[in-house]
Design goal:
Blueprint: H1 3-26, H2 32-54, H3 83-91, E1 107-109, E2 115-117, H4 118-135, E3 145-149, E4 156-160, H5 161-165, H6 171-182, E5 201-203, E6 208-210, H7 212-217, E7 227-229, H8 230-340, H9 343-358, H10 368-371, H11 381-392
Antiparallel strand pairs: 1-2, 3-4, 5-6, 5-7
Amino acid sequence: MSKRACSVLRAALLERDRYLWDCAANRRPRTETMTTEKEEEEKRLEEKMKELENDSGFNQPMDTGVVIPTPDKNNKKNLVFDEERFEDTFLKCLICRETFDEDEKMPKMLPCHHTFCLDCLKQMFRVEGEFRRNLTSAFRSMPVAVKISCPTCREGLIASEAEILRLPNDHTVRELVAFVRCTGKPDVAYCKKHQMQPLNFFCEPCITPVCRDCTVIDHKEKNGHIVMNVEEALHKYVPVLDETLTEMESEEKTLHDKRMALEKASDNLEQIQKELGVQIRQTFDRIRDAIDERERELYTAAEHEIDKKRQEISDQLELALNREETFKSERMKLNTAKETKNIAAMFSNHQSAREALMEKVTVHGPSRAIRDFAVSFQFNSRQENNIRHYISNFGDVTFKNA
């Protein structure tokens, strides 16, 4: 940064400090104490100015077109200004409203000295070229050079894409971007009560970060407030935090070990439940198989006896039907011969009928064994109750606690 820029920054900081002091002084009675505090504040300002002059990060030589100071968090100065408005006005492209950078958003200066990013200028070139190509059939491809107008002043520029790439960089904007990047804006917290004042101090009794205005207005040392620099507070309390973090890590490790043990115990319970379920199911499956087997045996025995009696009855029934059909046929033949008074047929049919009657075929009716046959399921009710009781108390699940 040039000496002139450093001088401007120093003057701005000094003027700001004086303004804040005057504002604070107007709220208090004009006493001798005020004069003493004002002298102390002026000494602080002089020390800050000396620190700013000795800051090597802002006095680097300009070897190239842009100076990019190396960020140093241990020796970083935060410039207090309206950063949002400053960025919108100087550090953002007026077309796309994105912040300039060293790549596609490189700030390019037109001949009219208005600055836009390289990406937007290339977009303007492509849009204008496509418009010219669609306007007439003379351009079968993109024209080599087109006229683009400055969005701010409407001054025209005839240039090719290569000439747009060769437009001069706006080194002032690049320096401002580099400077704001080195001020550490993302790391700065500002006071909610006193706007645009960074919280560079820490009030120990109140346990809260404060700004410079707070130290002279709301957190005075004479009122019992112990104010220290943020770096001093960090140096003092970081070891305490480290000790707390160590204890928390130890406790967290203990809890982690316990959690893993509980998860393992839960998995063991799941496995025990599965194995127990398999054992119970297999045991009662065997009992059910034995009961089903006994049921099949009893059913088979009953079916065998009943089939035997059914076959006996069926045989006698078939014999009775055959004899009945024979007698019916012979009777009909004999009646026909009699009605027709056919002497020859009467004698032949009579002879056949007598032979059927003389045939010794015995058809038995239902025997006493068949008439009195009955099947019933005999089961001792006391045995049934005993089995039910035995099954209801069959097996047990025992628990063993360590």
